[in-house]
Write a structure and sequence with these properties.
alpha/beta, 28 helices, 677 residues, 17 strands
Amino acid sequence: MQNNTQTFFGESEERVTVQNFNNISDPQEMRYLRTLAEIYPTIAEASTEIINLEAILNLPKGTEHFITDIHGEYEAFIHVLKNGSGAVKMKINDVFGRTLSEADKNMLATLIYYPREKMDIIRRTEKNMVDWYRITLYRLIEICKRVASKYTRSKVRKAMPKEFAYVIEELITEKPEVTEKEAYYNAIIDTIIEVDRAEELIVALSHLIQRLVVDHLHILGDIYDRGPGPDKIMDRLLRYHSLDICWGNHDITWMGAAAGSLECIATVLRIQARYGNFNILEDGYGINMLPLATFAMDAYRDDPCTLFRIKGHEQDTDSETLLNMKMHKAIAIIQFKLEGQLFRRRPEFHMESRMLLDRIDYEKGTITLDGKTYRLLDTSFPTIDPADPYRLTEAEENVMERMQSAFQQCEKLQTHMQFLLNKGSLYLVYNNNLLYHGCIPLDRDGNFEKVEVYGQKFAGRKLYDELEKYVRRAFFSTDEEERQKGRDIIYWIWCSPMSPLFGKNKMTTFERYFIAEKETHVETKNPYYQLLDNEEVMNRVLAEFGLGTDAHIVNGHVPVLQSRGESPAKCGGKVLIIDGGFSKAYQKQTGIAGYTLTYNSYGMNLVAHEPFTSIEDAVKNETDIHNDRIISMNAPERIMIRDTDTGRKLRERISSLKELLYAYRSGLIVENPHALR
């Protein structure tokens, strides 16, 4: 990994020169400086701020944590979030080295992850809790000192729980004026134990360590689908101190559903049915499934719907499972109808090849694809009119109208989707890394594919930007036609061969349900995935987004099949594919439970995880997702805040403040020490 200082900011020298000062009489520049003077009305205040910002520039870069393809696996996600992909254990090792046994380190790590749960267990066996409290508090304080050392006191203070802010600051701050330091700190600890607040302080210190170990979180998509807890994940992210999100293809369908896209609503419902997760909608979001259940029981009452078994529940035969299977088939047929209507309505999407219901011979029970006829595994289509196969029945229309109303009026869902819009995007450039979920559509030669979006063609970064505009229009445009275009493009993003979030030549959902022949199930990946080790092509991708050859691409979406010898690092480490399979549905294929990435002041660490069992197991037996750093890329020099995007903004602020000082001292602006701010 090369030194990032010049990579992030080619013009690393201060821009404030005598020549700059000679230009500040420009009217626009003066207006800006006068506005700045309202915030810093005196030379003393402007100077103090410059000193403070310069100090921040010389602190080490905070740790970034990259997680992707969570797929609703709440407990595994929370565990990785709490342990910072091994960052907590690294701090424990940094502080205690060989002075603690591995057993003590594991206990301390588990305590930091789950303080209340771990103390409940310790209380049952520990004979002298007073000594345990004292030892544990001292250990946590030492770790707190280490993790707080790379931040300003102000930032650490803001991260502290209010109840213990004063006490924690006293304990972790060096006090040169105190001569009997040991006695001073002992007295504080003894008092905390005496007044029976030790456990609450242990909880507060543990949460503070979790908070300070990771400075910023990157989610690279697919929070939703398959797993049972995406709503809980979203609730947790709403409270997270600093993060951004790159939308995944599954997230985009939920966004489309919240915006009112019928196609997206049907897709979301079908996937929840497929994995037996209707409780996400009913319990998590309060969306009533009764309209769909009632319709399915009526329309498919005599149909066993055996092709629509719930994934992971194949052995179940109870009445609830049978109902779910009927609901599963009912919404799948509705989805195929709705997407056929969309593709017919939007010929510019070039998706006619995925209109399959009119290719079925309903009398013979066959379908013709690419000139070859296949027998269907299921020929019961009570709601399809062969003369007009894409028309919804009156009952189906009623179901979808009620579902659309429920999705659009669900306050919690709308809050979560607004959060995705506010914190999210299709791609992100951050600290010399390019982040996205899927792929950059390329041709076989590695050139950017020109993709049509409503009559105009876009490629590379411009394609991403154009698609994102339409996603936001689906929610915010005052023009109903533009809002509809936005809703429709969201579904295109979900399943189009040219979509950067899908990246395959076709989505063979229908074939996987109804046709036995595996040849029809094949989904060929975009050439991008075959070119991941081509340095020339990857450098071209980086350049398209304004980055140099020593930048990195961090990519989600495609599970890394470690069981087949695949590596998450491509192109000599330039490209990092960090989806190893959080989803339990993928783990048999991948042989692993996910990759995550951390990027701290010393460099990058790619971490592999074993499957997560349960929080109970983690607390009781101190088992952890095994953190194995499979790739470390160390920076030749420690990376400081001045070498980051934040540092660039701070340097620009310092430059402006220096211009303000010059304006004060040259008489262009008059100090106002009595200004009310």
